[in-house]
Structure formats: structure tokens, C-alpha cells
Design a protein that fits this description.
Largest sheet: 8 strands, antiparallel
Number of helices: 3
Radius of gyration: 16 Å
Shape: globular
Structural class: mainly beta
Number of domains: 1
Oligomer: single chain
CATH superfamily: Deoxyuridine triphosphatase (dUTPase)
CATH class: Mainly Beta
């Protein structure tokens, strides 16, 4: 796992993470916090298969923040939502191969909720997203730019090729 001193070098010198809000707040001892750009409700179903010929990504629509994009909030009733992050990851143009695992911050779980997110492979570049499952029967308030996920960066060894899938350069 890559620590904060090396992460700072990779962020400032190589653009490992861009579009962040505050480097000092988001940089953690062994990771980096991702923040909420949008919260969206699903408006359709999706599909997955073996070779992606029938893959369908569910559609969604943004829920507006009450009070605006700086200090605003959304009160979410129980259900599953899509979160898009402010930050972009650049795992393509680095001095060595890096992959990323991310998980929700403890406050999310301690309030009876959780998120789900895939693995970012070496070569990925873009603005990721996660699903956000509100399990607390009383709901959950999410503020604009809330730190919701923490990324953990790993050096990959003996890598041949880079990620080149559908989610490359996603916004």
C-alpha cells in the first residue's frame, strides 16, 4: 500500500488524483478520501452477462442539493442511489503501475448504510462512481462534497497491458 508521502508526490507531480477539494483534508496516512459530486436516483434497470453483448448500465437522474452545491444537502430515504465523485483518478501516466481499492468511510457504516464500488485497474482514468445503499430506516443526510469513500493505492508488479474498457475516461 502506498503511504501519504508518496501519494502526495504522485498527486502533485503526476496528477494521480485531480479535481479534489482540499489536499490536506483528503490525504490520509494510507489513502485518499473521495467526495460527493452528485447523488442520483436510478430510473431504469440494468443487465450483466459474460462478454458484455447484453450489458446495460441503469440510467439515473441527479437529485438537487437543498441549499446549493457548496453547503447544500439531500435527505435520502432508504433505497439505493448512485454517487458520482468530484475527483478524477489517473492510473495511466505514472512512473509505475498502480491499482486502487476503495471502501466507504466509517461514518457511512456507523449510520446503518454502505456503499459498493469496483476495483480500479492499472490504466483507468476518469471520474468514478459507487452505489450508495441507505439501510437506516430513518434515512440519511448527505451534504455536498461530503467525504464518503477512501481509496487505497497499490503498486502492481509484472503488469502487461492497461485497462481499456468501457469506463475509461468516464465523467
Amino acid at each position: 500500500m502506498i503511504g501519504n508521502e508518496e501519494l502526495r508526490h504522485l498527486i502533485e507531480g503526476w496528477g494521480l488524483v485531480t479535481d479534489f477539494i482540499d489536499l490536506e483534508t483528503q490525504l490520509q496516512p494510507t489513502g485518499f478520501d473521495l467526495t460527493v459530486k452528485t447523488v442520483e436516483r436510478y430510473t431504469s434497470g440494468g443487465a450483466i452477462d459474460f462478454d458484455n453483448t447484453h450489458r446495460k448500465i441503469a440510467e439515473s437522474e441527479a437529485i438537487p442539493f437543498v441549499g446549493g452545491l457548496v453547503d447544500g444537502y439531500i435527505d435520502l430515504p432508504p433505497g439505493v442511489y448512485r454517487i458520482r465523485f468530484n475527483e478524477k483518478l489517473n492510473l495511466r501516466h505514472l512512473p509505475y503501475p498502480i491499482s486502487v481499492i476503495s471502501c466507504y468511510r466509517g461514518t457511512v457504516m456507523r449510520n446503518g448504510n454502505y456503499t459498493a464500488l469496483g476495483f480500479w485497474d492499472y490504466g483507468y482514468e476518469g471520474r468514478g462512481e459507487c452505489s450508495f445503499d441507505i439501510r437506516n430506516p430513518h434515512g440519511f443526510r448527505v451534504y455536498a462534497n461530503a467525504r464518503i469513500h477512501q481509496c487505497f493505492f497499490f503498486k502492481a508488479t509484472k503488469v502487461v497491458g492497461m485497462y481499456d474498457g468501457q469506463y475509461l475516461f468516464e465523467e
